[in-house]
## 1
Amino acid sequence: MQAWQQTFGELKDQYVRRSSERLGKIFEMVSLLNQRPSDMDLVTQLSRQFHWLAGSGSMYGYPEVSAMGIEGEDYCNALIRDKSSNPKADVERIKTLLNKLSAQFRTAGEAGPETVNLPQNKNDKNRADHPDVLIIDEDINDLASLTRLLGDEGLEVRSSRTMAGALAELKQRMPHGIVIEIPLPDGDAYDLVEQVRQMDGGDSLAIVIVSKQTGFLDRVRSVHCGADAHFEKPVDMKAMIRRLRYLLDKQKQAPARILSVEDDPDQAAFIRAFLESAGYQVRTCTDPKNFDSYLSAFNPDLVLLDVMLPGMTGYELSRYLRQDERHATLPVIFLTTQGNIEARIEAARAGGDDHLVKPVPPALLLSSVAARLERSRFLKTLLHRDGLTYTLNHASFMEQAQLMIAQHKRHAGYTAMILVDLDYFRSINERHGYPGGDKVLVAMSLLLRKRLRQSDIIGRYGGDEFGIIAEGLDEQEALTLASRLLADFAATAHSTQLHAGFYATASAGIAILDSKTMDLEQWMAAAHKALHEAKQAGRNCAIAIKDGQLTALDQNSSSNKVV
């Protein structure tokens, strides 16, 4: 918060200087208007100047400046809308308003930034490297079952059967997530959630409530106390684990990217500095003509659009966005001085997700941005992730592969496509049932997420086939990586209720991208050919193809050999 206050002070000094210069220009325009009171082009320019003051005054501790800016903008717009043959500006009225504005800037503004709870990026070195979850459940059988399920998901699990024991565990080490089954024997679980949220680090962890009590009011209490999700018994375990996994993965996501389209430098500077203080990445587009290039280069997660822009409106930019299905889930928030119902209707028709009236209170801006980003990210997860393995689905994986090819046309380098296919998967389903097959698939996805880099792209390419896009790996490195993955998977024991300790293997095919000669279809075909050769070679091995030549890793010498 201290850093934001210092930044705010610097921005405020710049704002006062710029506003004084702006008022000087406005007085010059009014002098011209005194000679040509019917010049609607001058009135339009004045309206824009008042619009800037209306949007920025309260941001920098001058609410009266915003109020007078709105008054001046409304008056100018009324003149522009006047359908009479020769409307004339009341120059004396405008001069009086400008003199009041000048007096505001001559008076030292004492107001500081609005107090806002900015999200903190905490890096607690005492927390586990892998996500850990605390389960609080009085029923020992339910506790054991849930512990086993979350353990199968690769999560470190701690447990407690009472509220007092849970608080002791939390004081010892704050987990990444909590699953609470209610009711608890020694206290109110909703009160426990509220206590956790007040603890150091408790504001960011994932909290899921599992309730034996059913009803709308119980769900409302969950929301009110700060829980992230509420499930009623009997629980759809796949849905609950999918939601928990999403909440845990959200903690590791990179800061969201926000594109602000704002031509007023004072408002643009405030928005950027404020949102960056809250942990977001922000880019500012001051000229709407450059909007498309910013969109392509920055790939934002949310767009803030001023409505009044030079040459076009924010509504037109939003309609342009919504014509492209790639931006169907991209949140758009309008910032405008127009709060009437017509403006709100226009914002909705243009595809806006929110309509904030300037001057926007910083707390409202931050809350709206955070809420829209959260919903957008969850929708993207539903659209782009496989429900069982939580890796990218086929369509999203192929889209990432296509983007990688386009990137390589601009920047040369190595990139490996690794296709991993489970061996004899049909037999696994026949012998251990579909739940057994699902467990093997989940085990493979967990292994891939643990062993691969954050930058590697993992997808469920087919029913029992996974795809990996590993940038920066040559043939030797990709073969070594794939062989280690297969060895680790072959050593992993799988269990079901009827079968304990069975094992499975997988095969891998690798193709190194040559963006000069390969398109997506050829890249995938090469990887499939290498995978087919691995199956023919006896399975449980990795084979790479490059320039038509097949190679495998020689386990004795750790070097490649021609197949």
## 2
Amino acid sequence: MTEATPGQFTLRSQRMGALPLLGFFLERMGLAERLQSYLPRDDARLRLAPAAVIGVVVRNILVARRPLYGLAEWAAPYDQVLLGLEPGDEAVLNDDRVGRTLDRLFDADRASLITGIVLRVIREFGVSLAQLHNDSTTVTVSGSYAEADGRPRGGKATAAICRGHNKDFRPDLKQLLFILTVSADGAVPIACRVADGNTPDDVTHVPTWNELRALVGHADFLYVADSKLCSKEALGHIASHGGRFVTVVPHGRREDTWFRDWAQSHAPAWREAQRRGGARLGDPERIWRTFEAPAPSVDGYRVIWVHSSGKAARDAASRAARIEAGLAAVDAVAMRLAGPKTRLRTRVAVEEAAAAALSAAGATRWVGFTVSESSAVAFRQERRGRPGGETRYRRSEKPVFTVSARVHAEAVAYDAATDGCFPLVTNDAAMSPAEVLAAYRYQPSLERRHHLLKGPQEVAPVCLQTPQRIEALLLCHFFAMLAEALIEREIRTAMKSAGLAGIPLYPELRDCPCPSAPRILEIFRDVRRHQLISEGQVVQSFEPQLTALQEQVLELLHVPASVYTGAGAS
């Protein structure tokens, strides 16, 4: 922004925002260097270097997600040097040029590009790969994408955009499957890939684990995932190749039903594994206890049962609510039967209506019903007219049904005996049950990355011209997630070393114990540099004055303040 001042001087204001901070981390990641290697400027007709365009896209995802057609407008107020551009380059930053650059990114050796950047991050930041967590989510897309059927492009396979089990609860839209793996050392993204939208999760673990083994260089790392990992093929593949795993056994498997039957007549020897305060002030403490099942899984792996006091309370409350809903549902059917115009005139119809009501309430297991039948006698004149002493009447009977609910007390008692219990399975013989639980309980940190992908990064819904551009854009989101994770890991580690319980990032200067990357970047949003210009020359530059909080955050992140002032900001 340029503002005229009295005389021959003009005042130019350039936004800096969080770009200098991000540039510091992206440089440590080696992003620009790697992009230049895999996306060379080998065509003299290119007005912008492909690596620079991808760098702008990544920064835009991190700072303020804008559609591709809005990149030029978004970049205009910023110092172009901070975006990796030359002055005036933002004018040619249109969506068509960005789209063609995404095509080039798809055609590049993306696997080697990701590996090179991740290995640089591991060396630069000292990220441990001893424990890796995997999970997948769906990326919902807008548009028909009729040609996105998995056909190859330039000899490379493309993911099919199709309908499947949509985790965004949008079955009306097509999707892709985004598979992400993070390290337990700060939830730093280590690997990602895109699969067809209708790919079931259980078949993704073997190829994912093979890729991780190649990345890590050996198989002796702990692989943690949700219940979709618990299949004979996936667990057998990992175990036979020297790998270790931890996952949860799905409800209804033999190991699950055996323990619940066994617990009806036996008292498990629970041992406390973790204890934490209540989620809210005044809530009871949350306690996790473990017990190693006396019998292994059907494939011979260790089964560790966990009892969570919080889950036990939720299970009991959920069951009670469903029982109440089931009783109310049966009462509603009884009221229908009592009406004079009921259409439930046969026993079969009544039973079907009551069963459907219980199923809709989710209470079939704990609530049953009894249908009783009686006869209602009615008398009707044989002929029309005023009744008299000689009027003949015809006697008729019709069945009358009533329905009453009953609670299956034995089923309630059976389930209550194992409230709050869930089984974990592992092939690691050296880990204690408490360590197995601790490893699995880190899984929500991976789900936090999916939240950032769909929340602040606003990945969905995606609407681009070609499916390969979507895959390339998802790779840009992966780079952005990697930068966010490193920022969070760096500041939380520094806070722990400094003995800080929190820093005042929240409104009203309230302490934030676990700073998130979006909140950290937000406090730098309004940082600007002002320049006094005369006859096209900078007469004087007014560097930004950082607040005490901004300086504290930069110090915790080990980012020199010079990135915002002097030569470090130009």
## 3
Amino acid sequence: MDTFPRLLLDHAQRRPDAPALREKAYGVWQTLTWAQLATLVRELALGLAAAGLRRGEHVVVVGENRPRLYASMLAAQALGAVPVPLYQDAVAAEFVFPLNNAEIAFAIVEDQEQVDKLLELRESCPQLKCIWFDDPRGLRHYDEPGLASLDDLVSQGRAHAVERGGFFDAEVAAGAPADMAALFFTSGTTGNPKGVIHTHATLIDRARAGQRFDQLTDREEVLAYLPPAWIGQNIFSFSQWLVCGYVVNCPESASTVSIDLKEVGPTYYFAPPRVFEGLLTTVMIRMEDASAPKRWLFDRCMALARRIGPRRMDGEALGLLDRLAYALGDLLIYGPLRNTLGFSRVRVAYTAGEAIGPDLFSFYRAIGINLKQLYGSTETAVFVCLQPDHEARADTVGVPIDGVEIKLSASGELLVRSPGLLKGYYKNDAATREALTDDGWYHTGDAGFLTPGGHLKIIDRAKDVGRLMGGPFDGAMFAPKYVENKLKFFPHIKEAVCFGDKREKVCAFINIDFEAVGNWAERRNLPYAGYTDLAQRPEVYQLMLECVEKVNADLAQDELLAGSQISRFLVLHKELDADDGELTRTRKVRRGAIAEKYGVLVEALYAGKVSQYIETQVKFEDGRTSMVAADLRIVEARTFPAVRSAA
């Protein structure tokens, strides 16, 4: 059981009728057992072999989480081929480099949208000869060479089942743990993405390490709703799924995730901070619309939860009155809130991908959700550090788990060595040599340190951590992501970008959360004509100023980061968007690209201007472009003296 196809066949033999995958279609959950999945994978593999797929070749897989796409990845691996998942929301041009870099001739996609993208690229990627689709809607009249449905591929596999009787089993047996299992392309924040090579051994080892750490069983329920191309989702809903044998549930669509989350009631949950931010924003919007007595009760119960909830989750002893008060709060507020969020059955919940704001982290633990942080990356197969159940802290990311070694370079960069490290970057020896040392250490690019208790604390990306120059905080550390996360805790702020390295003060761009601020404005009878109009309302600026100054007051309590207080800010006239090159597909800020694109705004912040006119081109989902223009106000924020710690 040292390759993924062998893990699949083991489950199919030992527990053939147990559910492996569920998919919601037309409002009804459909179940695929392990035996049915094994049969489907066998037929798909035979079909792919008949189409010409050979050991060592690559197959691109694009789409939402769908059982037949998962089966297709397993089918490719059974033949010794390599699945290459790509982001389904990427524009067609973003596929060109991965397709050509990995010399991909075969593609398996979800629907018409993805088919159209690949057909558009045939001139740029002439080697792409076969495209199979899962959902036939809208494709009835397509007549393109090499285009067919997955149903056709399955039928072709069945037709070859008799004449190639032992072929599938022989191919699975020929697989080895050191074989390449998947190729994951990074976000490419500073250039072309890099293809990260992972073997069956690296992915399975880390999946098993995570299984042991949290004592996962085949009784877990997981909701797979994040992009399969992100290794975080891939580990939780593919690698660990095959190692543990639990059930993976695929939502009907992106718009039904919140409903499906409540129906499934996952026991094992994973999401980046932006998802938890969005859920909290929804809660706060609903509470703002509630009656005065309900808001009063919510505020009183949440004050109690913030005081004792995290201590309760950490297993600390509480007084009788606190226990009774929390039990009453759980009956009236926390329990119904967990149910509304879909977290009633969650035993373990993780957040990763980027740092989570401490206030956001504490909120979920306060209401009784076992939210923990983990640290890892695409190159480390995710699992490097995890937080034990009773040692979850907002400012650390856990302890190194089985097989992981950690050390810090002289510059404070974190280095990792573990059995889950990438084999290398595909066709990029220079990048591989830069990332991996001769004795097996991986340069993470993160700045951090180990606490006396053995927990890892990440400050920021090493390249982003800077120093202020001049002004009252001359020489003070500047950690932009830390400040941005504090801003994003407020439900009215969706995104923030801070600047300050080698400057005398910190300035910021802010994106409002259109839904939250729109709801806030409507309750105050404030008219607006769209995002740009709403973002520039004086009342909205006052709301943002209050948020910024609360963050500044909090930062002033941290002697190390007091210099990172925000002196001036503006509210952007458009939402930062991956299609406009401002965010990665995992919604990480492309800081350099934003600083370059909006250089005139950055300079206006530091030049002392009170406003700045700007025009920006935006791209719509259908490929059209338009210009958005606005005269942006620039506001001064109050900063506070640093609180000195006692000697």
